[in-house]
Amino acid sequence: GENVEQHPSTLSVQEGDSAVIKCTYSDSASNYFPWYKQELGKGPQLIIDIRSNVGEKKDQRIAVTLNKTAKHFSLHITETQPEDSAVYFCAASTSSGGGADGLTFGKGTHLIIQP
Amino acid sequence: DAGVIQSPRHEVTEMGQEVTLRCKPISGHDYLFWYRQTMMRGLELLIYFNNNVPIDDSGMPEDRFSAKMPNASFSTLKIQPSEPRDSAVYFCASSLFGEQYFGPGTRLTVT
Question: Is B32 within 8 Å of B7 (Cβ atoms)?
């Protein structure tokens, strides 16, 4: 089955700086890669996703890149703000047409924004 | 839309008791997923349904766990009998075009 590795486990950056979280996956059949943000006591919130036919996707301060050959994908947050502090999870799955398999998650990165 | 709704939000029970967790997916979504989150194992997929039919239950840890989806707007996850190692946060998620949206979770504590 799929295995997703995520690094680092904790990341502390100064407010306004950029943060990068990296993930690798093992199953070459995986073609859907979402990122989730989880705040304390809440469920994971989908913040951005990318499919295997795209190398990069951007949404305001958040971007995700995908390298299918190397089987790794990354989350980039620019101009970090205090409200970006949370645990971030990467995930991978196979998705065909309108359907989707269950997600395999990384272990999470605790992002701390220092004021 | 109210999003995915889960109940109860917190459940404390004694070992050996039956526990039932409930989920209402987002209206119109055709996939429903149950996940479990613990510090040791992270977020794990337990089972998922497509159009109310179970597709993959390979993540269900033991026969003590069972899940049903009697209609498109309701699903249950049952643990019978419960054990202390079942203590975790259980999430339900629903999906229409691959994007999964999670509920707030049920925090289960088995003493």
Answer: no
Q: Single out the residue of B6, B22, B13 nearest to residue B87, CA to CA.
A: B13
Question: How far is Cα A2 from Cα A7, in angstroms, rounded to an integer?
Answer: 17
Place of tokens 């299918």: A68
Q: Which two tokens stand for residue A105?
A: 């998650």
Nearest to A103 among B4, B100, B103 (CB): B100
Token pair of A1 as six digits: 């089955």
Q: Give per-residue pLDDT as tens, A49-88.
A: 998 888 999 999 999 999 999 999 999 999 999 999 999 9
Closest C-alpha to B67, from B101, B19, B15, B110: B19
Are the CB atoms for A109 and A87 separated by under 8 Å? yes
- Mark yes or no for CB contact A100/B98 under 8 Å: yes
Say if CB B75 and CB B7 are below 8 A apart. no
**Per-residue pLDDT tens digits for A4-28:** 999 999 999 999 999 999 999 999 9
- Find which of A40, A101, A109 to mutate to test the B interface (most B CBs within 10 Å of its CB): A101
Say if B43 is an interface residue toward chain A (CB within 8 Å). Answer: yes
Q: Does B76 touch chain A (CB under 8 A)?
A: no
**CA B24 – CA B36 distance, rounded (Å):** 17
